[in-house]
Amino acid sequence: MKDENKYALLIDAENVSSKYIEIVTKEAQTLGNVTIRRIYGDWTASAKNSWKDSLLENSLSPIQQYSYTVGKNSSDSAMIIDAMDILYTNDVDGFIIVSSDSDFTKLAMRLRESGKRVIGMGESKTPKPFVRACEQFKTLDVLYKNHHPDQKSSLPERTRKQEIRCVPTEKALPKEQQPKDAQPITNLRAIKDTVISLLDENSDEDGWMYLSELGNMIQKMYSDFDCRNYGFHKFGKLIESFPELQTRKDDSSNGITKIVLVRKREEW
Fold it and tell me: Model-level pTM?
């Protein structure tokens, strides 16, 4: 039996909310054995109190990093230095970098050049260069929203409407400054267009293609792709939601395993 892949989990507490810790740890555990768990921040600041309960519960080692300059995230350099130390002195197969900061783009690229897997986790606001530099990227606020659909407000609908009517319109934020709802980095339309294009280019003479092969191609093209971002728990269910496509299940030679194929419907 092959040993599990070993990962180093590095969390930028200056840039990620503590409310995501459950998602972060769950996703990390599905990847393999997380042998190193470190979280970076200025733990003397009161703003980090929300993280403190999570440290012991999730076996996270806090790394103190003082903020020498106001408004500057001082944890970046400490994480980068530690990541390079781990690369050369520890036997790990990959890194999980939890941050929405583009400053880790070059680090992700360097780690992958050394043959390590790099899984990024951050919010949908994360700049695309960092997202693309990772082999996979988990969009925390989208996963959180789909896992906690009632988090928008705990007030009854009637009360929320009354509250909205009471807000003076002249004090409302401009549209471009209003907080945006969490959305996938790559929208569903782009995914569908790419799926259809891949089928045109890679299907057999009858138009069929293995669903697993299609899924692997999509993941390689979009590191942030996760069918859960679009409300589906399985890639096959996402594909079946596209009216332009059809799927077919075939028994493998052992009569047990189901092989799923997909193609464009003839009428399309």
Answer: 0.82
